[in-house]
Structure formats: C-alpha cells, structure tokens
Amino acid sequence: MTLNDHPTFLRHKLSYTYKNCHWKTMLSYIRRFFKFIHWLYLQYLLNTALYMLEPWERLLFSTLLFAILSTALYSALVFLPHHVRSMIQFYS
Amino acid sequence: MLASSSSKLSHATLVHRYPPSKLHSEEEMSDTVFSSDENEMNYKCENVARKDDENLQCEEFEETPLYAAILTYLSYAILCLFGWLRDFLRNSNIEKKRGAVDPNATLGFVPLYQSYESFYTRNMYTRVRDIFNRPIASVPGAQFELTERVSDDYNWTYRYTGKTINAINLGSYNYLGFAEKSGPCATDAINALKTYGVSSCNTRIELGMFQRTQRYHVELEQLLANFLHVESSIAFGMGFATNALNIPAVASKGDLILSDEMNHISLILGMRLSGASYRTFAHNDMKDLEAKLRAAIVHGHPRTQRPWKKIIIVVEGVYSMEGSICRLPELIALKKKYKAYLYMDEAHSVGAMGKNGRGIVDYFGVDANDVDILMGTFTKSFGSAGGYIAGKKSLIDHIRVNSHSNTYASSMSAPVVQQIISSLRLLKRPEGQKRICQLADNTRYFRQKLVDMGFIVYGNKNSPVVPMLIYMPARVTRFNREMLRRGIAVVTVGFPATKLLDARVRFCISAAHTRQMLDTALTAIDEIGTDISLRYSTRHKSRRLREL
User: Fold this and answer.
1) pTM of the entire structure?
2) How far apart are CA B520 and CA B196, in angstroms?
3) Of B299, B354, B496, B515, which is most buried, counting CB atoms within 10 Å of its CB?
4) Partner B contacted by A48 (CB < 8 A)
5) Which residue(s) pair with B345 in the sheet?
6) What tens-digit pLDDT sequence spans chain B (548 residues)?
7) SS3 state of residue B459
8) Is B398 helix (H, G, I), strand (E, B) or coil?
9) Which CATH architecture has domain B184-428?
10) Alpha carbon separation from B454 to A34, A60, B67, B68, B448 (Å, rounded)
11) Are B184 and B423 in contact (CB under 8 A)?
12) Which of A39, A45, A52 sits opposite B127 (nearest CB)?
C-alpha cells in the first residue's frame, strides 16, 4: 500500500483566452488554490518526516502539535496585553 | 546543436574550439564525427584540452544549507520519538513483534547477535524499505525490468503481483554499456561456457588455470597489462576480496598506511587484516597528507619512536559516494619526495575515465609506472565480475606467491574471463572508443544540466558517478517513489552508507544511455525537484529545465 496514489501529473491545460466565460477561469483558480494547499500539506509532511509514518502516527503528532500551538496562542491572546501593560507600568 | 553521425561520411573530421573561459561556459568544446558502421547511436563526442590541469580537477562540494540541516535533524528526532513509542508498544506486547526475534533468549541462552543499529533498522529503515533492494527481472542495461511488489503491512512483508515495470536504469554500474545479453561479448562468453563449463573446481595455484587453444587466465592478465601500460597484472574472482586479501600481502606489522577518509570498506578491512598501523587524512586534502607524512617520518612509531618500515598511501580513483577524483599528479609528487608507496583503487574509474579508458592515470596523463600498485575491478565497466592488481613484474610475482586469494580462493570462471577479454579487445577498436566518448558526453551533459537547474551535485565534473544531495529522509523516499512512478529507477542512499545529514541520490551514467533517456530523466528530476523543493544551491541560480 503505497502512500502516493494521488495522480499529480494529470494536468488539464486550460486555455486562458478572453473568449472563455468567467466561471471556467474561476474554476481553474480554485483548482490551483487546492493544488497549492495540497503542496503545502506535502511540505509539512516531508519536512517533519511524517511522510514515512503510518496514518495513526500522523494523526497523533498533528493532534499534539495543534494542541500545543493552540494553547500557546490562546495564552498569548488572553494574557499578553495585561503583561505588556504591567511591564510598561513597571519600567516607566 | 546535435551533430548526427551520417553513414554517408567516410572519414573522421575534427573541429577544435578553444577551451571555455569563464565567460562562455556554455560553449561546446568540439565536434567529432566518426564514420559509422552498423551502429545507429547518435552522439556528439567532445575532446577536452588535456593539458589544462585546473580544468581536470574542477570539483565542487557545496556546504549544507542551514535550514536543510535543521530540518534533517528535526526529521530524525521525530522518527526517533516515534521509534521509541513503537518499541515501547512492541515490548509491552500491545503490538505484535514483526521483525526476526532471536529464540535463544527464551531458552535461557545469551543472545547470539546484538546489532546496535537494529533500532534504526526496525523503526526507520523498514518503514521505507520498498525503495531499497529492489529485485530486477532482466539484464541491467540502460533500460530494464523491475519486479513489482506491493506491501499490505507497511513493508514488513511483500507480495509480488507478477508484473514487471519497465524503467530507465540510472543505478547500475554499467559505465561502458557492456551489460547486454546479445552481442559479440555475450556470444564469446557462451562459447567459453560450452568449452569449459562454469567452475574450475580448484584454486588458481593447484589445478585452476585454463589453457588450451585459448589461454584464458594468462591471456586476460597479458591483455590487461598491455591495456594499462604496466609490466604485469594478476586477476582474482572477487573485487572486494582483491582489496581485503591483498593488502596484507604488501603491508604488515611495522608499516604505516595513510588512507583517505572516504575509502571503501574493502580497503579498510584489508588494512585491519594486515596488522599495519593506519591513519586517515582528510578527503583529497594534500596539505593534510603532507603534514601527516612529515610527522610520521619524523616521529616514527607512537610508543617506541622507531622508524616505520614503509609508508603506503591508499586512495581511490573515483570515490563512489562523492563522485570526486583523487589528485594524482600531486600524490605522485608527494610520493617521490617522501619515498612512500602509492596504492590506487580504480574500481569505478578503469574503463570509464581517460581518453582511452585506462583510468585516472590516463585522465591526468601521468606515467602508469609511477603508481606502485594499481587495483581495479571488472564489475563496473567491463560487465563481468572480479578484480585485478597491476604493477611491476616483481610485485605481481610476490603477490602470486603470498596472496591469500590466489592460494585459497577458487579461480575465475571461464565465461566471466571471456567477457572481460572480449570487452578489452572491443575497447581497442573504434567501437570501444565510441563508447568511451559517449560516456564522457553523457556525463558532462547530465552534470551540467543538473547544476544549471540549481541542485547541489558533488564531485568532479567528469566523473560518471553523480551524487545529488537531498538531505531529509522523507524527501529521499518521496523522490525515489516519484521517479519510479515516472519509469526511472534510481539509487538513493541514506544514513549508514553516508553521514547522517547527507542523504543523497546517486546517478550512474552509462554509455548505453541515449540523449533522449537522459532528457526524460532530467524532465522528471525537474518536476519532482519543484514539487518537493530540492533546489538547495546558493552558488547557482535555480531554473526550470524549460528555461535552459
């Protein structure tokens, strides 16, 4: 069971002439956007070596990463203004 | 741009151009049009100005970019963490143990084998094991068949679907294209098989030397000595064993061996077996070597301060993991100045380098008698198996009597010897010269395109071994699998064979590759390189293939 069943190199070459109607070019932009998201996800998998791990390990790592990052973000959003204000008060 | 050899021409025309300066680095060197016989290879042969020493030794080893190093360490750290998790699950019996388990431990015995690398094997290597050790189903020529295998349980077991994949072969050591199952060499080998059978059933010294109307072993050694311009040579059945078992014949306790740090394991094994002391010097660094030589001569043995009996410098012609070439002229100058001996292992360079295919000695244009012990193998360029040692007659006679592999290993098989004899004879004819030219042309073209696209490629620009660096393990596996999906089989190497950071893909260019095959491969590399961002080089601008 290889991990790469995604047919990446089936490219539909759309012609971007002015004769095309707007919804077709809109569709191509949406397709390119999804391809870009897929490319970003692939970069995440490759740079952290999750590409070599099994799906449940990927889920575990991503869950842990998301939990840690979201906790850090939440604490920053809640506590940072108060800390910055008290620091300014302390040093002025 | 492509000069095709037409059958209408009956003479060879040579067009020389000046060697390229730094401004015009894309200019071709020259065109040579040979008259073609029944060969339909279209090629363009280039003649390099041989006397330009700086041009011959042009090597590049770009430093690792910082972000690549950090991401590689991060990848290995995450793999390690998950390795510990899985090992914990396996040891506490939550998950079944899949690998081979030593049954002696359950019976109360001490474990029979303990490899400290098995953590790596279980948790990192086995996950991506399908990219290594692929079984092949045909002769490994320029294009070959790979058996298709599928795994249902993440590479612990395989099942074969029965189909084969036709792929371009960029992994076999087939430098001159002699890996073919039809042609003059194959026909001669079959005739040799019919005359003498497969095995000689004895060692060389006892009853193992074939001689009737064709004097196989003797003829091989004479042909080889003429080919390399040395006095005499001796051939053995296995290239690894040639190194490992003949270094003890020339070095012993009380000698000093100075070896390059990137030397092959067969040389290191031979050095350890001989009982001599050995030290390593930095890769291709002549200043370091000279400093160590001077220190060795001045100080002698570390404990007793007695002078060393002799000093041998061991280098390789072309290093198979780096693609670099040893600096032979400087080595010979050093050797003569300090009265040391030089042992050169030309496993990858004999047949592949040099104007006439004679190896590094031919490439630099030095006298073959300056290198004391020339060693090489027949596996890479001659399409056969075995190794040889060449040098002065007194040396070879000494080895004949004192070598372990001559006395105890069984002698070479007749069809194997005949393949080497046929390929050596072929190399003297114009057809062999065409192969050598084609290899040089392919090598330069492939390397130049890769470097222009912005990939980091190590080594000398004339060596047919092309290592391209991909630092992270996940990118290595993705590259390998994507290349196979596009029909190109490559060899990627990772941690134990290279340093932890420097995982790479190593392309082996062959004379049997046509320009079209190389273009297919370059297109695929370009696409995949963009997909997984492999263009690390800061010295060369990153460009797509269509812009070149």
Assistant:
1) 0.83
2) 43
3) B354
4) yes
5) B316, B375
6) 433 333 343 333 333 333 334 443 333 333 333 333 333 333 334 444 344 456 778 788 888 999 999 999 999 999 999 999 999 998 898 888 887 777 777 788 887 776 545 788 888 999 999 999 999 999 999 999 999 999 998 999 999 999 999 999 999 999 999 988 888 999 999 999 998 888 887 787 777 777 665 678 889 999 999 999 999 999 998 999 999 999 999 999 999 999 999 999 999 999 999 999 999 999 999 999 999 999 999 999 998 999 999 999 999 999 999 999 999 999 999 999 999 999 999 999 999 998 898 999 999 999 999 999 999 999 999 989 999 999 999 999 999 999 988 888 888 888 999 999 999 999 989 999 999 999 999 999 999 999 999 999 999 989 999 999 999 999 999 999 999 999 999 999 998 889 999 999 999 999 999 999 999 999 999 999 999 999 999 888 888 888 88
7) strand
8) helix
9) 3-Layer(aba) Sandwich (3.40)
10) 27, 36, 16, 15, 10
11) no
12) A52
- Of B509, B162, B194, which is closest to residue B348 (Cα–Cα)? B509
| Contact assignment for B481 to A39 by CB distance below 8 Å | no
ipTM of model: 0.78
Nearest CA of chain A to the CA of B217: how many Å? 49
Give the closest residue to B246 by CA, choosing from B389, B93, B41, B149: B389
Distance CA B52, CA A37 (A): 51
Say which residue the tokens 């690998």 belong to.
Answer: B99
CATH topology of domain B167-176+441-545: Aspartate Aminotransferase, domain 1 (3.90.1150)
**For chain A, give me the number of helices (H) and strands (E)?**
2, 0
Counted residue by residue, chain A has a size of: 92
- H or E stretch covering B277: strand B277-281
Distance, in Å, from the CA atom of B540 to the CA atom of B455, rounded to the nearest integer, reads 8
Residue A75 touches chain B, beta carbons under 8 Å = no
DSSP percent split of chain B into helix, strand, coil, nearest 5:
40, 15, 45
Those of residues 105-164 in B touching chain A at CB distance below 8 A are: 124, 127-128, 130, 150-152, 154
Domain ranges of chain B: 167-176+441-545, 184-428
